[in-house]
């Protein structure tokens, strides 16, 4: 029988037995991972990596930063402010920027709102003349 108790490989990715997948719901991501990360600076999720989205290009994310996943990857990232005294979010990278698109999706646990899901599209170039890229 194979021993699958080893959770880390040299490249930081998790190793699970064949057939096992990490596919949490939006509610599970918020209540079991994100809320714990926000409340405890020392919290580290073995299945979710950390990345500064302003310093990494999207095509570098899966192979270099994801701890596990095949078609979907999960990351913790700090929200960067565009200006020190502003609430505006900085979503620029070296070669492009992330732009919010569509309507934010409400995430509920039972009947309580626990978070919002925002869809971002990466644009190559500078705003407003950037062109969207198909990532993945």
UniProtKB/TrEMBL annotation:
A GO term, aspect molecular function: DNA binding
Name of this protein: NAC domain-containing protein
Domain (NAC) ranges: 16-136
Keywords, ordered alphabetically: DNA-binding, Nucleus, Transcription, Transcription regulation
Coiled-coil parts of chain: none
SUPFAM superfamilies listed in its UniProt record: NAC domain
Family annotation (PROSITE patterns): NAC (PS51005)
GO biological process terms held by the UniProt record: regulation of DNA-templated transcription
Native source organism of the sequence: Escallonia herrerae
InterPro entries documented for this protein: NAC-dom (IPR003441), NAC_dom_sf (IPR036093)
